[in-house]
Design a protein that fits this description.
139 residues; alpha+beta; Alpha-Beta Plaits; 7 helices; 40% helix; binds 2'-deoxyadenosine-5'-diphosphate; binds magnesium ion
């Protein structure tokens, strides 16, 4: 059964370009409620742990250095069918394949620097949310 929360990050590329406000607007206009929100930065060790599932992939080193190079916005979001609906809102991993109206179509520049993260399952949404936010930071 689908739960109603997902986890997102506005990645360093989008923060550097000043797109925090634009992306948060797209998220709230799509009907997501912000449960938790902060500007933070991943250490190299944080990024390695967060993306441990990709450790054997050729792009892992590049991904870890990109994700730790500057501030990110981390957020927990709430909506019916949150995980699936948020994946639709962000669009394909490769922005060249992202549909019109998606966050990655508007803000991502490449496969590696694709502006936003979205959890891929309810289980990962819970793990990723807890990685960034204590219970008292979840509203
Ligand atoms: P998503 O972020 O859409 O869930 P993913 O979980 O497959 O995609 O990969 C995590 C991130 O790793 C992705 O947002 C960007 C990067 N990445 C994935 N495949 C890549 C590739 N072939 N080359 C470079 N970066 C890649
Ligand atoms: Mg993923």
């Amino acid at each position: 059964m689908a739960t109603n929360r997902t986890f997102t990050m506005i990645k360093p590329d989008a923060v550097e370009k000043g797109h925090i406000g634009g992306i948060l607007s797209m998220i709230t206009e799509a009907g997501f409620r912000i449960v938790s929100l902060k500007l933070t930065q991943l250490t190299v060790a944080d990024a390695q742990e967060f993306y441990a599932v990709h450790a054997e992939r050729p792009f892992y080193g590049e991904l870890v250095s990109f994700m730790s190079r500057g501030p990110i916005v981390a957020a927990i979001l709430e909506k019916d069918n949150a995980v699936e609906d948020f994946r639709k809102l962000i669009g394909a991993t490769n922005p060249a394949n992202a549909e019109e109206g998606t966050i990655r179509k508007k803000y991502a520049t490449s496969m590696g620097e694709n502006a936003v993260h979205g959890s891929d399952s309810d289980e990962n949404a819970a793990i990723e949310g807890a990685f960034h936010f204590a219970g008292r930071e979840q509203f």
